[in-house]
């Protein structure tokens, strides 16, 4: 019996139209946040797993994965208690950043979910910079897919997690890892949402054989670090082509695009296993976390949207289920 995805779909549109980014304001789908625990009225799950961490707090943890000591920050949401199983979001930082920094600029800790902000291992290249698997500057002989498994096991051992609602996001190099996890651990993650992902060839390993998975990609059209049009010298794909590739992989048949100010949102429907694909293109946007008030990278930051809200709206529509 293998996990499958349940998803609700919205209309979507061709990526070529996104590249053009018509900026005339039109209606957009309203974004809504839902409360985290998902149980019937009066029902109590009574998870009761031990943790001394208080609700509405962030705490640093360490674990051993492979031969390395790894670290992460774990955020428990306001209202967290042991009567419910909570959704879990893994948020991966970019090269040279940290989990603490992602928590600071992403606003993901405001969501009704448990959020983990892991730290990468020291990669190659100039500087003493943390990085993730899949990039040419990844740490040698470090398996971040295995680390992700170990991280999930550690969190789930001591916290009340709904394992049908586990999600991955990240920025830049960390977003590339999130994309890789969609291919390497499709039975673990209900959906992934890379922001300004560094999609080096190493992030595409196993993707051709992977089952359909819900994908949300957010990218600035003026990103000078991970260009929207791609970079042949670094073997980075054009973002519209990469997203279109996922739509084709998921068997989607129809797309529509809606624009609002500097935001063009494309959604694909008619997908195999209802595996939604969504792309948000930000006209003039840089290598940043859209909507953030704290520095997250170079270039213009739009405030037409808040990435955390868009991501949560997407994640809230998806969960794993078992079909036999």
Q: Report the sheet-strand fraction.
A: 25-35%
The biggest sheet, with number of strands, parallel, antiparallel or mixed sense and barrel status, is: 10 strands, mixed
CATH topology: Rossmann fold
Helix content: 10-25%
Number of strands: 14
Question: According to CATH, what is the class?
Answer: Alpha Beta
Largest sheet: spatial strand order: 2-3-5-4-8-9-10-13-12-11
Q: What's the number of helices?
A: 6
Order of helices and strands: EHEEEHEEEHEHEEHEEEHE
Q: Indicate the structural class.
A: alpha/beta
Number of domains: 1
Rg, Cα atoms, Å: 18 Å
Your description of this structure?
The protein has helices at 15-20, 99-106, 144-158, 173-184, 239-249, 307-315, and strands at residues 2-7, 57-65, 68-76, 86-92, 114-118, 121-122, 130-131, 161-171, 191-195, 215-220, 254-260, 263-269, 277-282, 318-323. With 324 residues, it is α/β, with parallel strands linked by helices. It has a single domain (2-31, 50-323), classed as 3-Layer(aba) Sandwich (Rossmann fold). 50% of the residues are buried.
Kindly summarize this structure in a few lines.
The protein is α/β, with parallel strands linked by helices. It is 19% helix and 27% strand. It is globular and about 50 Å long.
């Amino acid at each position: 019996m293998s996990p499958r995805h349940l998803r609700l779909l919205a209309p979507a549109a061709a990526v070529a139209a996104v590249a053009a980014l018509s900026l005339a304001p039109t209606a957009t789908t309203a974004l809504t946040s839902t409360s985290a625990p998902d149980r019937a009225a009066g029902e109590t799950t009574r998870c009761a797993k031990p943790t001394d961490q208080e609700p509405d707090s962030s705490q640093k943890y360490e674990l051993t994965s492979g031969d390395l000591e790894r670290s992460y920050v774990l955020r428990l949401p306001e209202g967290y208690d042991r009567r419910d199983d909570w959704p879990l979001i893994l948020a991966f930082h970019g090269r040279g950043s940290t989990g603490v920094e992602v928590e600071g600029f992403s606003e993901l800790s405001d969501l009704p979910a448990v959020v983990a902000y892991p730290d990468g291992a020291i990669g190659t290249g100039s500087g003493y910079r943390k990085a993730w698997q899949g990039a040419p500057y990844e740490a040698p002989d470090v398996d971040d897919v295995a680390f992700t498994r170990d991280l999930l096991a550690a969190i789930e051992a001591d916290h009340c997690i709904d394992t049908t609602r586990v999600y991955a996001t990240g920025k830049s190099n960390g977003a590339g890892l999130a994309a890789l996890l969609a291919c390497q651990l499709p039975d673990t993650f209900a959906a992934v949402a890379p922001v300004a992902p560094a999609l080096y060839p190493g992030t595409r390993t196993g993707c051709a054989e992977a089952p359909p998975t819900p994908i949300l990609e957010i990218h600035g059209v003026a990103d000078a670090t991970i260009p929207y049009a791609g970079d042949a010298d670094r073997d980075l794909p054009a973002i519209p082509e990469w997203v279109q590739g996922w739509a084709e992989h998921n068997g989607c048949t129809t797309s529509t695009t809606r624009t609002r100010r500097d935001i063009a949102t494309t959604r694909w429907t008619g997908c195999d296993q209802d595996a939604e694909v969504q792309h948000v293109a930000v006209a003039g946007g840089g290598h940043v976390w859209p909507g953030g008030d704290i520095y997250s990278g170079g270039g213009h930051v739009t405030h037409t949207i808040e990435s955390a809200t868009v991501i949560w709206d997407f994640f809230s529509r998806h969960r794993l289920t078992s079909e036999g």
